Write a sequence for this structure.
């Protein structure tokens, strides 16, 4: 059998009609006054041009030919929102033919930030939304957020991903609250305590959170485990 | 603060210089005569044009403007190798500036296939290699394979990914052999049996594998769990 070779230009290749963009999903926790559990929130940017002028969209922009994908995600996030998380993880490449009036492949990144990392200063055309009650977004961005939420809920079960939403030291109640916000359901405090204590990922400190309740021991994550282990890609960003 | 809008063309956007390709990593297990454990193997395609003419590369090709990413991965894999796995999963988008003489973003897919799914007929310019002893490949394809192997080793620990390399019914020894091949280390048979029996992912059948050894019970995976759960993306391929 004869087959064509790889990466060989063909007569109708898409070089002149397909463009590459990057977008970023930034999750944090936000406490609405009166609510028992904080909610997952993310920043969106109001589009000032067509297509979808006036609609909300994920922060992002075009990939520049002279920059890597990670660098493009950081740059466009900063340009649109002013946010500069220490680490962005690649989430997925979205490339459905009809996702935009022209052909656009969007490489989507994501990151978790602590509530205290959200700047107080407001940025023009940027607003934070509850992930559970978004308006109709531009392009396929609702679908992208749904996928990121699904990944977040899956990941919280087997990794230290909740760490990205917590201070360095935290109580078990604070950790449980993060899980409850992400999973959108209440967890039994005793079961939760047993599970995380058995997991080996937490180290108890000799410090306590004091306040209106009885003192609660502070824990920190075991730093022997990498927060975001990208394996062989780890050193490349 | 004023920030620029998202997805708005800029003067120097990369539309005319950045191209999108797809590549695919297909893993299977191959038993070399005399070897105790099978090895992880993958098909590579010899390049017949520059750049990197004569070097081995992952199967793949250019994205066509009229097809989705998943479709492009299936099409180019079929065109180069004749392989048609039932399911390809997106692995990662590689986009380092210097990974090719021109700017190319490669969306990489991967799949596992059983040894009996590897066609006997040889395909011109296609050869199967042991993943552990690859030659120097074209572009950054060694790095891509390393990343896929790392994901495979990680995933085998918490998912049913080994299922893709096994028949519908299998003995615990056959399952352990798959794990040993992927993890590249021997596992204690008694510990392994206890772990998988406790995991709830296997269902014992009332059938046995007979032959030169004593009869061994056949198991199958619990079909209540999706093999490759992509969450909200599941219905889109």
């Amino acid at each position: 059998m004869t087959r064509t070779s790889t990466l060989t230009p063909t007569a109708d290749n898409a070089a002149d009609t397909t463009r590459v963009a990057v977008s970023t999903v930034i999750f944090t926790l936000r406490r609405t006054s009166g609510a028992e559990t904080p909610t997952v929130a993310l920043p969106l940017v109001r589009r000032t041009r067509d297509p979808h002028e006036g609609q909300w969209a994920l922060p992002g922009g075009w990939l520049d030919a002279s920059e890597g994908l990670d660098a493009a995600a950081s740059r466009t996030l900063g340009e649109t929102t002013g946010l500069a998380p220490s680490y962005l993880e690649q989430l997925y490449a979205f490339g459905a033919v009809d996702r935009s009036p022209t052909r656009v492949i969007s490489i989507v990144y994501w990151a978790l930030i602590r509530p205290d990392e959200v700047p107080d200063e407001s940025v023009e055309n940027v607003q934070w939304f509850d992930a559970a009650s978004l308006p109709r977004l531009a392009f396929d961005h609702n679908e992208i957020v749904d996928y990121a939420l699904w990944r977040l809920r899956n990941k919280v079960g087997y990794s230290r991903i909740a760490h990205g939403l917590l201070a360095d030291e935290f109580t078990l109640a604070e950790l449980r609250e993060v899980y409850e916000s992400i999973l959108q359901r209440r967890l039994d405090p005793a079961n939760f305590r047993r599970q995380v204590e058995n997991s080996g990922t937490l180290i108890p400190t000799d410090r306590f959170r004091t306040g209106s309740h009885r003192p609660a021991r502070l824990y920190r994550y075991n730093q022997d485990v990498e927060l975001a282990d990208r394996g062989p890609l780890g050193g490349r960003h």
In short: The beta strands of chain B are 18-30, 39-46, 56-57, 60-62, 89-94, 103-112, 126-130, 202-209, 216-221.
